[in-house]
Amino acid sequence: MKKIFLAPITLFLLFQIVPLRTFAQYGAGGVHLPYESQKASVKQTIGLTEMEIVYHRPAVKGRKIWGDLVPYNNGNPIPWRAGANENTTISFSNDVTIEGKPLAAGTYGLHMIPGENEWTIIFSKNHTSWGSFSYDQKEDALRVIVKPQSAEFEEYLTYEFANPQPAKVTAELHWEKLKVGFTVEVNTHEIVLASIRNELRNTPGFSWVGYNTAAMYAVDENFDYDEAIGWANSSVSSEENFDNLETLSQLQTKTGKADESEKTMQRAMQIAKPMELQNYGRQLIREKKVDEAMKIFEYNAKKNPDQWFVYAGLARGYEAKHEMNKAIENMKIALDKAPENSKPGIEGTLKKWEAK
């Protein structure tokens, strides 16, 4: 068998790129040992979009990091692995935008080119390599420029998803006394709508609940009313009840059909259960629609006078109107009629009101 000999300089470069410890971890016939820079991951869901960063965490260990261990770009833009060991990777389950630039769903190798005043963040289509040693710019999916920020000392390199919002989040690297972040945005409404349309073709589309939930999303998010009215009508056709009639009424109001909305709500109230009316009144109070809430509470009390909680509803309505004598009066009626397990909460409320 012919033997292969490596020149001393070749061996030197090889072990500079791949530490001896690696061969102990992954050498032929060897056993797996812990990395000195241990593996970690961080996940975040924005809307329905799942994101994950997988990386290894080197320590400062008293070393000068920026501009030394990790060189700055001084006319020689050498990418850094943005961690240790294998590629740091970042994954997105849906299409996103990074600093306003589009990036398709998938998993990417995350590399960075540090600078004293600005950093280049690189998303590479190759995410299965060791570090940045085989990085090829031709495989770039996206590059963005961001500004570094000073930060409190962090011994171990850390990634986090900071300040999550309904449609965006900031992915941040934090190590030593520096943070570098980039904004990830998702079109949550478009993604959720696509998911809803697909799900309604399956089991959720065979009950009133699926269509009503879809329509309620449009109500809560204030968009796509026309399609949502179709969903609400499908829900009502499947099984008419207070919940889906209320949803339909709200959509009719939002689309300028006030008369239809009132008729729909009257129909809903006729078939509503006492607790459904109670919850609807409380919802109106939260929306600062106190007069409308009082009409619901009064209607509920007249229709269901034997239910203790209708008087608690009246009490909450009068509280919202700052008519505390009437609030206390009705809460005492609720206390007399309430089951034993509900009395402590009512008594606590009365004590607070009477103390004021």
Helix content: 40-55%
| Alpha carbon gyration radius | 31 Å
Query: Which sheet architecture does the biggest sheet show?
Result: 6 strands, antiparallel
> How would you sum up the global shape?
elongated
In N-to-C order, the SSE pattern is HHEEEEEEEEEEHHHHHHHHHH
List its salient traits.
356 residues, alpha+beta, six-stranded antiparallel β-sheet, four-stranded antiparallel β-sheet, 12 helices, 42% helix, 23% strand, elongated
Give a structural overview:
With 356 residues, this protein is an alpha+beta fold. The protein has 12 helices and 10 strands. Helix content is 42%, strand content 23%. Strands 1-2-3-6-7-8 form a 6-stranded antiparallel β-sheet, with no helix packed on it. Strands 5-4-10-9 form a 4-stranded antiparallel β-sheet, with no helix packed on it. α10 (308-320) runs antiparallel to α11 (324-337).
What is the element layout, followed by pairings?
Layout: H1 8-17, H2 20-26, E1 38-46, E2 49-57, E3 88-92, E4 96-98, E5 101-103, E6 106-113, E7 119-124, E8 140-146, E9 148-162, E10 168-185, H3 188-199, H4 208-221, H5 225-238, H6 242-254, H7 258-271, H8 274-286, H9 290-303, H10 308-320, H11 324-337, H12 343-355
Antiparallel strand pairs: 1-2, 2-3, 3-6, 4-5, 4-10, 6-7, 7-8, 9-10
Helix pairs in contact: 4-5, 4-6, 5-6, 6-7, 8-9, 8-10, 9-10, 10-11, 11-12
